[in-house]
Each structure stands twice: as structure tokens, then as C-alpha cells.
Design brief:
Structural class: mainly alpha
CATH class of the domain at 62-204: Mainly Alpha
Strand content: under 5%
Largest sheet: none
CATH topology of the domain at 62-204: Tetracycline Repressor, domain 2
Radius of gyration: 19 Å
Order of helices and strands: HHHHHHHHH
CATH architecture of the domain at 62-204: Orthogonal Bundle
């Protein structure tokens, strides 16, 4: 009898291998045969599940979004009561720093490979936008909690702070991808984040 495979599990196996390839060899190193080889699957398996290269890229982007979403949800869950290390701006800094070490560094590199391609592919862009909005919402919640309860901060101020912090974080993560990190520990990154928050407050006064 022929073995029956769990299709969702097989697709996950394929996309995880694709993430490794994108993160180590770049988009030019991504092909159906290479994914088969990296995943240890019979030749033709990847092309059976994802007929085209675009279909494979879209599925890989969705898998990255799924993994990132899990990490963000975990941070929100751990920081909900303020008792865990993943809370406040330090928790945000810890999450960012984790993207600069393995196994998440390979995923970070794969993500940026897809972001570059997303500039020319609306379908890929839509998936990455979903992830960006989720990260924005989480960062905004953290920043809103950073403010003293009284008086309540103006929403526009929090929005500006969020944009400035995320712009800086994007640069930090890019330095990880290039192999020349500009920050090497979460405590230092947290100091930078809080300095940005204070400077935006001062500039709005």
C-alpha cells in the first residue's frame, strides 16, 4: 500500500526548507529541486505541492508570517501580567535581539529576501503587510503602556513614537542580516528605544 502523507505537515516541511534556503543562499538559490534536497524529500515533491516558483514563495512568506505571529503572540501573552521578561520596552528589545541569533537569524534573512521581491509582487506584499501591521500594533501597545497613566497620552504622539521606534528597529534588524550588528544586547537596545520615546515627547512639547 502507498503511504499516505499529511498534506499540511508536508507543506510545512517544504516551506521550512525554503526558509532555510532563502536565508542561506538568497532568492537565487531557491528552486523546487533544492527544496526537495534540503527537506530530504523525493524529487518532485515540492513541485507537486507548489506548481510554480511564485506559489512556493507565497507559501514561504505565509509560513514566515505564521512563525512571526507565534513569536509576537507569545510576547503579548508573557507580558500580559508584567511578571515575565517579555514585557514592556525591554520585552520588545528582547524580541528584536532574538531575530539576530540562530535559529531566527536565518528566518530574518529569508524575510528580507521576500521583502525585496514583494516590491514587485502585490501578492507577496499583501502577506508581508499583514505581518508589519501586527508588529506595529504590538509595538504601539508597548509604547502606550510606557507612558504614565495620568495624563493619558495623545494618540498622535503614540503613533509618532511607534513609527520612529520601528524605523530604528528596522535598521537594527537589517544590521543583523548584514552580519554587522549595531547593538549586541537587549538592555542597550532598550536604552535606545526609551531615548527615542523621550525625544519624541520632548519634541512635541
Amino acid at each position: 500500500m502507498r503511504r499516505k502523507y499529511n498534506a499540511p505537515q508536508r507543506r510545512q516541511q517544504i516551506t521550512d526548507a525554503a526558509i532555510e534556503l532563502l536565508g542561506t543562499e538568497g532568492s537565487r538559490g531557491l528552486s523546487h529541486p533544492k527544496v526537495d534536497q534540503r527537506a530530504g524529500l523525493p524529487a518532485g515533491t515540492t513541485s507537486y505541492y507548489f506548481r510554480t516558483r511564485k506559489a512556493l514563495l507565497l507559501a514561504t512568506a505565509e509560513r514566515i508570517r505564521e512563525l512571526d505571529e507565534a513569536a509576537l503572540s507569545k510576547m503579548a501573552e508573557l507580558g500580559a501580567d508584567g511578571s515575565a521578561s517579555y514585557s514592556g520596552t525591554l520585552g520588545l528589545a528582547q524580541l528584536v535581539m532574538s531575530s539576530g541569533t540562530e535559529p531566527r537569524l536565518t528566518r530574518s534573512r529569508a524575510r528580507y529576501e521576500i521583502v525585496l521581491r514583494a516590491n514587485r509582487d502585490p501578492d507577496l506584499a499583501a502577506t508581508m503587510i499583514k505581518m508589519g501591521l501586527r508588529f506595529y500594533d504590538l509595538a504601539r501597545d508597548v509604547i502606550a503602556q510606557w507612558h504614565p497613566v495620568q495624563p493619558p497620552p495623545v494618540a498622535a504622539l503614540i503613533d509618532e513614537q511607534t513609527v520612529m521606534v520601528l524605523t530604528y528597529i528596522d535598521g537594527v534588524m537589517m544590521s543583523f542580516v548584514h552580519g554587522h550588528p549595531v547593538v549586541t544586547d537587549a538592555e542597550r537596545l532598550n536604552q535606545h528605544i526609551q531615548a527615542i520615546l523621550r525625544s519624541v515627547v520632548a519634541g512635541s512639547a
